[in-house]
Every structure is written in C-alpha cells, then in structure tokens.
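Kindly go through the following sequence and its backbone structure tokens. Advise at your convenience whether the structure tokens fit the sequence:

___
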Amino acid sequence: MPFFKSLPDNAGPANVFTAYPEIYGPWSKMSQALMNGPSPLGQGERELILAYAAGVAGCEFVCEAHSQVAYVRGVEAGVIDQLLTDLETAPVEARLKPLLAFVRKLALTPSEMSQADAEAVFEAGWDEQALHDAISVTARAAFMQRLVEGHGFTPMSCETAAKSAKQRVERGYVNLYPAFREDT
C-alpha cells in the first residue's frame, strides 16, 4: 500500500508521472531516447541491464517490470533470475558479462568504480558509447528504485508486469502516458 493516502492501493509510477507532468514528461522523453533510441546495445539488452541493476539493488518492483519488457524484446525468459543468481554461469553472451559486472558494481558500490572496471568492458569489445549507455540505464534503474520505494509501491504481479511490458514496447516510454503523448 502506498505511503501517500491520496494514491490508490495499486498505485505505481504512472500515478506519480501523471500528477507531475512538468517533471515526468521530460523524464519520459529521456527514457524513450535512452531505452529505445540508437545505441550499440539492443533494446532487449538495455531492458536486461535495467532489470539486472534493479535486481542486484533489491528493487523487486523495477526488476520485475523491466524483466518483462526484456522478455518481450526477445531476451530468454528466466535469464535475469539466472543472472541475479550467478552472473558467471548465466546463459548470456560472454562479452555481456563484463558489462553486467560493471553494472552490478555501479549499482551496489558506485564509489568503488575504477579504470580497471571500464577496461574490462572495453576489452570485451564494447565501445565508450555502449558503456555510457549502460551507465545511464543503471542510473535510470536507481532513480526508479527510489521513486517506487519512496512512495511505498507494492511490486506488480508477473501478469500485470507482462501486460505493462507489452504496452511499453508497443507505445514506447513517451506515449505510454496520455499526458505525454507526442501525437497529441
């Protein structure tokens, strides 16, 4: 149940975004560009990174929501749970593992980041744009975690998250909320 009495029991980020369009309209546009715009990382990879970053940080709401988007985007169902259990044995492309190790460390101990962490990503074949995008997606996960945890939102059921994921893929991040639609 949300901490705010003005919010319904099943409230989520959409309730906050709609209440403050001057803040979250630009946020939605940034999210659209970050998650669906040009990047060396595919859309499914970016959603996987967001879900993974939220999962390692302990945010079930954001992890489940974005795991479902990653699965709609073609990531094999269950992979994010496997990554959270053991990055080294999870069935993902080998070159993705150093990037995910960077994401994990950034999500959990950001003040301990080092040049060696970045070099491991570059040595795996990623360029600076890919690392920047992974850092930005990890930052987005942290922001969303604070938003949902700060408001006391209850994690969505798997079914609700799957339905929301399909809408997010079909409409994008900007057009998901009527107040922010680009075509109106």
Observations:
- The chain has a mean pLDDT of 92.
- Residues 33-172 form a domain with the AhpD-like fold (CATH 1.20.1290.10).
- The CA atoms of residues 98 and 121 lie 5 Å apart.
- The chain has one domain: 33-172.
